[in-house]
Amino acid sequence: MLLYLDCDTGIDDAIALALLLAHDDVTVAGIGTVNGNTSAAQAAANTLGLLALAGRDDIPVAVGAGRWRGGTPHVHGGNGVGGVPLPRGGQPDSRTAGSLLVELARRHPGELHVLATGPCGNLAAALRAEPELPGLVAAVTVMGGALRTPGNRPEQAEANIADDPSAAAEVLAAPWPLTLVPLDVTLRHRWSEDDRAALAAARDPVNRAIAAMLPAYLDSYEPRFGARQLPLHDPLAAALATGLVTASDKPRLGVRVDVAHGRTVADPAAPGIDVVLAVAEPAGPVILERLLRNGS
After folding, report:
1. Distance of CA 168 to the CA centre of its chain
2. I need a labelling partner for 139 at 20 to 30 A (CA). Which of 46, 117, 173, 234 fits?
3. What is the mean pLDDT of the chain?
4. Are 173 and 259 in contact (CB under 8 A)?
């Protein structure tokens, strides 16, 4: 599978990236960063640092933009990755994230899979730059939205959609094969302190770096869950996009973005997209096993 990742590297984006790098059948052709958990520039620095730890300086990382709302340091730390210092990686690609996506899609028509784990600003920019983009990509997976469960922002919104709702509206309405992975399913798949400890004990430097990030994430979710657990938002989307886990409930639903309130709304009149509401197996152990296998 040839894949382009669009992210706002944050802690769960870092896990998703590590999972993609650990997947034998996935080739990451390029990465774009967007404003979200942290700024697009900081997200690029975080991504390049993780790639340096993984010995993967061959993957281009392009800085995008999108709407900027100040990030979420109370969840992801001041630098987006729990305050953990990462090595200085290479330089960002000279292209914008949207341009990189368009170029990859043109170069590999019908082959490129797109995974978005942050707000949709870069994907919307790419759609405006290349109206034929929906016919050039194989599939699009977006982590975002909340349909039948409360959101994690005001007005029952979810962060990735709420941070740039106009862009999300463009992306969800575009005529490409799109799968939405909302909070309805991601909140049910979690890691605990034991999973963090397993990563910390691994020899792989990427796994150890992620383990060092996780206390900040666990701290932010412990009051909500009443237990020291964290949800696997972006890693679950990556696992679904690559076939590592399988959806057991994936209805095709009309979904639109209520731009004024930054939330996703079920609407039979809206374009139909596949929405993952349940996964066949607990995803946490599957994701951890794949990361540990890579770092053994």
Report:
1. 14
2. 46
3. 96
4. no
Task: Say how far apart CA 133 and CA 129 lie, in whole Å.
Answer: 9
Tell whether the model's pLDDT for residue 264 goes beyond 70: yes
User: DSSP string spanning 136-198?
Assistant: H-SEEEEE---SSS--SBGGGB-HHHHHSHHHHHHHHHSSS-EEEE-HHHHTTSEEEHHHHHH
pLDDT value of position 291: 97
> To which H or E segment does residue 84 belong?
none
Question: What's the token pair of residue 238?
Answer: 């990556």
Q: What are phi and psi of 126, to 5 degrees?
A: -65, -40
DSSP H helical ranges for 35-164? 40-54, 73-76, 97-107, 121-129, 133-136, 159-163
Tokens standing for 103? 């170029």
CA distance 60 to 25: 19
What local confidence, expressed as pLDDT, does residue 15 receive? Answer: 98
Active-site residue list? 233
Under 8 Å between Cβ of 148 and 184: yes
pTM of the model: 0.96
Q: How many degrees, rounded to 5, is the angle at CA 194 between CA 191 and CA 199? A: 85
Sequence letter at residue 216: A
Nearest alpha carbon to residue 137 among 170, 103, 112 = 112
User: How far from each other are the two terminal CA atoms of the chain, in whole angstroms?
Assistant: 24
